[in-house]
Amino acid sequence: MSSKTSPTTEVERQLFAAGARFVLGIDEVGRGAIAGPVAVGVAILDSKSNNIDAVPAGLRDSKLLSEKQREALIDPVEDWVRASAVGYSSAEEIDTNGIVNALAVAASRAITELLQDAELRVQIVTDGATILLDGSHNWLQQHSGGLPVVVRTKADRDCAVVAAASVVAKVKRDRLMVDLANEYQGFGLEGHKGYASAGHIDAVRAVGPTAIHRKTWLTKILADSPFDVEPKFPEA
């Protein structure tokens, strides 16, 4: 499929045919940011649903959509899937344990949130579920909740349930970054959402990193500009 082709449920149907009632699409956002948490979205498709192929019009990998398009899709996406959730790992967790571990922990938190629904939890145990993970390797490792994991490159582009997870994660993380912009003013978080724009780097050079900056990442980006690694502005 090309990047301009809408994702389908072809792969999800293959997993249903292999014996899983549910497919959990998983995708991450915020991995490359220098501030804010990393977010992992999980969306569940139920083979017993009557609307499996009623993929919301315009659904794509979140990276291929504008902010306006993503916001317009969030409600249709959440209505289409059986359930969805977003888990986060903080900048401190990324600095302490590394990005791969942080991603796995964030995914585990999202899965745990979904399994708080007792009916869904029982159905998954009874009828089976498979995780469909975007990427080239299983970064979930032991954090899959005991569910089998199928890894697929470009799943966020080709597989509708993973595209749905990417949209949910992106919209929810972007909204969080806008809220954080009110608390951590002067960095432009509401615009770049924590990524390394020129203005963002200039602000960090001027006042130093905050409690929501990934300090181990900033030391590489700003190696020529020494700064105190403790938060300067504002206090957490």
How do the strands and helices of this protein lay out in sequence?
Elements lengths: L9 H8 L4 E8 L8 E9 L20 H14 L2 E7 L1 H7 L1 H16 L3 H10 L1 E6 L14 E4 L2 H4 L1 H24 L5 H4 L5 H10 L7 H7 L15
Parallel strand pairs: 1-4, 4-5
Antiparallel strand pairs: 1-2, 2-3
Overview of this protein structure:
This protein is of the alpha/beta class and about 240 residues long. It has a single domain (about 10-180), classed as Nucleotidyltransferase, domain 5 (2-Layer Sandwich), CATH 3.30.420. It has helices spanning about 10-15, 65-80, 90-95, 100-115, 120-125, 155-160, 160-185, 190, 200-205, 215-220, and strands spanning about 20-30, 40-45, 85-90, 130-135, 150. Strands 3-2-1-4-5 form a 5-stranded mixed sheet.
Radius of gyration: 19 Å
Element pattern in H and E: HEEHEHHHEEHHHHH
CATH class descriptor name:
Alpha Beta
CATH superfamily: Ribonuclease H-like superfamily/Ribonuclease H
Quick rundown:
This protein is of the alpha/beta class.
Keywords:
44% helix; 236 residues; Nucleotidyltransferase, domain 5; alpha/beta; 5-stranded mixed β-sheet; single chain; 10 helices; 5 strands
